[in-house]
Amino acid sequence: MDSPHFFVTPGYGAILESKLGYSQAVRIGNRVETSGQGGWDDDFVLRESLRDEIVQAFDNTERTLAEAGAGWPDVVHVNSYHVPESSTSIGDSHNDVMVEQLRERMGGRAPIWTQTGVSALGAPGMRIEIRVTAIVTSPDR
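Above: the chain sequence. Below: its structure as tokens.
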């Protein structure tokens, strides 16, 4: 059995590891799991607009995958956590950007995806968090 190898995203990931004691990704063999990635920059400033926050969360997920030797083409499962617009729906303002980003980054593939509405996320003001599972099939990764 392959041993787990943990990865820390440069910038915000190193801060989180130091402050909170966790890594951003783990790789066991060809399987990569990420922790939830928010729409923050390396100074933990969240993007002002919801759209920009979601795009930044996708960018951060991409950076974290790359640290573990994976990329969006390897992603098979996406979990997204949303602070919803209302108590009855995550809402189109979230969904429209999520779908746009998934289509853009997945290159025509459709991973499985679970959305969950939550009342709060890990940092004040966060509206989105994304975690993924990837299976690396490319021999050069």
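The domain at 5-135 is CATH 3.30.1330.40 (60s Ribosomal Protein L30; Chain: A;).
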